[in-house]
Please model this.
Amino acid sequence: MKKDSAEDRPSAKVPSPLVSGRQRLMEAALQLAATTRSLASLGLREVARQAGLNPNTFYRHFNDFDELGLAVIDQLSGQLREGLRERRRRPAEAGLKLSDTANPGDAWRKAQDVVRESIALVLDFVTEHRTAYVVGIREMHGSSPVLRKALRKVLDDIGEDMTEDVLGALQLPLLQREDVAEISQLVIRQMTFFSLDYLEHPEQREQIRRQAERFVLLLFWGAIAAKAPQELAASGLRFPD
Model:
């Protein structure tokens, strides 16, 4: 990658020379898109101005705005996937495993504890990474088919991560991999909306968190009930209020 020349340097504030022109353009686009704009609606000159670069610099790093958007999405998705996985794994690493108990009722109570703690940790992560989430959700419904396709792939990848985490940590009885994969994809897509509500309505966060918990538990309860209703009934476990 070429080094930025003197024309690339902003007149007001010179950024760190360790930050490349490509990265500065990506960060500028993300900052602008974090308000009320979509990546596809941004103009070349405003992104370059936000980055403190000459507009001609843009085409040294990207062929068009879709390529810039894909670079932003790729960077954010890596951060989100790793962060979300780390949060989901914490409850299981603390010792909450279904395989640790032979009593079905105790097992499902532990599973519900894992769901509650995981939801809380994920919503905390979303709050800490508000910009990435807001931009990602907006672009899912944006005007660029290229970016929409890329974001659907991100959701599929996060759903696959969740499938691996659930199978590795909880070892749910009766459910096959395809059952967990289907549930995981539904959870990931719905959690994008719970997360957006959580960010936009701080006064309702406790209510939103409980709604998210119930949604996830309903999916797993429904899947288990469909496989073995008698076993679930015999466990004496009640769905949480």
User: Anything to note?
Assistant: Residues 1-17 have pLDDT under 50 and may be disordered.
